[in-house]
Known about the structure:
There is one protein chain. The protein has helices at 11-23, 63-73, 89-97, 107-114, 116-125, 142-152, 175-193, 250-267, 297-304, 308-316, 395-408, 418-424, 428-432, 439-450, and strands at residues 4-7, 27-33, 47-52, 77-79, 101-102, 156-164, 167-172, 198-202, 208-216, 222-234, 237-243, 271-280, 283-290, 333-340, 352-353, 356-358, 365-369, 376-377, 384-392, 410-412. It is α+β, with helices and mostly antiparallel strands. The strands form five sheets. The protein has an eight-stranded antiparallel sheet with strand order 13-12-9-10-11-14-19-17, with helices on both faces. Strands 3-2-1-4-5 form a five-stranded parallel sheet. A three-stranded antiparallel sheet has the order 7-6-8. β4, α3 and β5 (101-102) form a beta-alpha-beta unit. The protein is globular and about 60 Å long.
Amino acid sequence: MFKRVLIANRGEIALGIQRACHQLGLETVMVYSQGDAGAAYLEQADLALCIGPAAPAQSYLDATALLQAAQASGAQAVHPGYGFLSENAAFSEAVSAAGLTFIGPDAECIRRMGDKVAAKRAMREAGVPCVPGPEGALPAELDTVCSIAAEIGYPVIIKAAGGGGGRGMRVVHSEQELGQAVSVTREEARRAFGNPELYMEKFLGHPRHVEIQVLCDRHGNGVWLGSRDCSLQRRHQKVLEEAPAPGIEPDVLARVGERCVQACRHIGYQGVGTFEFLFEDGEFYFIEMNTRLQVEHPVTELTTGIDIVEQQLRVARGEVLELRQEQIITHGHSLECRINAEDPHTFIPTPGTVSRWDIPGGIGVRVDTHVTTGYRVPPYYDSMIAKLITHGATREQAMARMRTALAQFRIEGIASNLPLHRNILQDPAFIEGAVDIHHLEHWLKTRQAGN
């Protein structure tokens, strides 16, 4: 039962974790880099400590500096947030070895689910539907790789076992392309992830990206908290998310959700986590599990009424999960737009000082942000500066509230992607619902060609 939590992150998620801690009566230690010095949200922490220069490798990614800060401040637990070291098994291990509580799954679960080959094997054992493809890593012999691809059927996709964020993957349409694709992807995987292992799956042409949120305690209890659709992506990075995923039958979702909870029990998972699937022609195909809090968790909070970060803290303290599956009911619909400091046409980041920051409000509108007027957006980190979330009794009402909120949001001093989101909310295909993961890229190309 910890009393003081070190938040090993920055920005809006650090502020969100801080709020949840204070609601539970927990003290907070906020760490910051020199690049974030002077940020207003640091003033709300019980203690704020500088851990190094602006460069992430010398601050938020420096496990030694974070552990020293935790021990010096008297923190008894570490919350990694998302990004940075949140899915780093070695960091989880180091936190535990120091006698502190890592607010997340244990190192073994992180390691197992971070290896896409091991994760897929575990999911198959638990009965979770997977994309067609062999269970193990690809062999070195090209002839054998060709035989595997022929058995799956082209097109196939080659992926790095230790990959993520859209890196380390190539689509192959014929045997003639296979040799070079394997060679290049293997080298890319070795350089980017320190792991040259690859695996192969059937390439789905027009899938949606659908997620299932889970929450589990250390006593064998677990629930799934509905679905999310994250299909609006650019270069494999999510732009807009919604909950629940539109157009999927409740009984189909329930079957997959229950299997996800069973899989968590199978691997001994504790905490919050997200199962990511491709969904095509009424079928779910597991692609990976994120062993951390997600950027898009607010849409699930608004549709279920459950504070996911609070529950994450409670189960980390060893509390028995009080929620039962029959209590989880989805109410209405929610959308989340990721507001980034970037040019809405070129997507180039636009760091600088925010001279005007007018956020929208009203019923069904939530803004998660650490930014205020006068805030200097640093050039060293992810460009997201806010999450704009709306909720309504129906998807149509949630969209109407989002259009109004986007129209009222005013950011000056830097460029932002607000105009992009305003245009997306007018797109007939998005309004109809259930667009695939390629839709936004095609829509952007069409828009660019028309200019």
